[in-house]
């Protein structure tokens, strides 16, 4: 796939730049909530529209559940940002994101791991 076919390419690059700046400033190992707050600051500086901790409805066979999902951040009303602070991401993290996308009807998610060293992981 060529880079011209990347879904929401400009938005993903803007988010990625903010993630890199936060990681350069803080380094690894803080709590997810710290990275979330710092990303909010960076997103505001960069005019990236976002919502933190928004309750999203989940559906099962078109029936709304009482349970809901609260993503760390949603950018551009379309991209879920799920923050992790682990040594390395694994298939469970990817499965979790795929379930969130399926349950919410959104189509793009970014897993951000700030627990890795020497660089932040984005998948």
Structural notes for this entry:
With 123 residues, the chain is α+β, with helices and mostly antiparallel strands. The protein has one domain: Trna Endonuclease, Chain: A, domain 1 (3-Layer(aba) Sandwich), CATH 3.40.1350. It is built from three helices and seven strands; from the N terminus they run ααβββββαββ. The strands form two sheets. Strands 1-4-5-6-7 form a five-stranded mixed sheet, with helices on both faces. The chain has a two-stranded antiparallel sheet with strand order 2-3. A hairpin with a 3-residue loop joins strand 4 and strand 5. It is globular and about 45 Å long.
Question: What is this structure's SSE topology?
Answer:
Layout: H1 9-26, H2 32-45, E1 50-52, E2 56-60, E3 63-69, E4 73-75, E5 79-84, H3 91-104, E6 108-113, E7 121-122
Parallel strand pairs: 5-6
Antiparallel strand pairs: 1-4, 2-3, 4-5, 6-7
Helix pairs in contact: 1-2
Keywords summarizing the entry:
123 residues, alpha+beta, Trna Endonuclease, Chain: A, domain 1, five-stranded mixed sheet, two-stranded antiparallel ribbon, 26% strand
């Amino acid at each position: 796939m060529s880079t011209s076919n990347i879904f929401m390419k400009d938005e993903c690059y803007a988010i990625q730049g903010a993630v890199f700046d936060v990681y350069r400033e803080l380094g690894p190992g803080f709590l997810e909530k710290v990275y979330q707050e710092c990303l909010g600051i960076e997103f505001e500086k960069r005019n990236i529209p976002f919502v933190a901790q928004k309750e999203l409805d989940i559906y099962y066979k078109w029936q709304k559940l009482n349970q809901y999902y609260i993503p760390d951040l949603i950018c551009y009303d379309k991209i879920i940002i799920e923050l992790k602070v682990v040594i390395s991401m694994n298939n469970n993290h990817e499965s979790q994101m795929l379930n969130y996308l399926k349950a919410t009807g959104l189509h793009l998610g970014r897993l951000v791991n700030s627990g890795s060293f020497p660089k932040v992981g984005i998948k």
